[in-house]
Amino acid sequence: MTSSPSIRITRAFNGIGVVYADRFATRGHALVSVAHDRARKEWSTNVED
């Protein structure tokens, strides 16, 4: 069984990052998305398999 590579996307919660995250997810890739919320001064991470 061939598995799709994992993809790490920064700024995946808005703009072009959302577009690419959606494209890779549709193709079956595992995603790790990372974003920084400047207003809250914190990092957010989301892992989808």
Keywords:
single chain; 49 residues; three-stranded mixed sheet; 3 strands; 22% helix; elongated
Would you write up a description of this structure?
With 49 residues, the protein is an alpha+beta fold. The protein has one domain (6-48). It is built from one helix and three strands. The protein has a three-stranded mixed sheet with strand order 1-2-3, with helices on one face. The two termini are 16 Å apart. The model has no long low-confidence stretch (mean pLDDT 76).
Strand order of the largest sheet: 1-2-3
How much beta, percentage-wise? 35-45%
Strands, count? 3
Uncertain ranges: none
Which H/E pattern describes the elements? EHEE
From the alpha carbons, calculate the radius of gyration and give it in angstroms: 12 Å
Number of domains: 1
Task: Based on Cα principal axes, name the global outline.
Answer: elongated
> Given the structure, what is the number of helices?
1
Largest sheet: 3 strands, mixed
N-end to C-end Cα span: 16 Å
Percentage of residues assigned to helices: 10-25%
Structural class: alpha+beta
Averaged pLDDT, please?
76
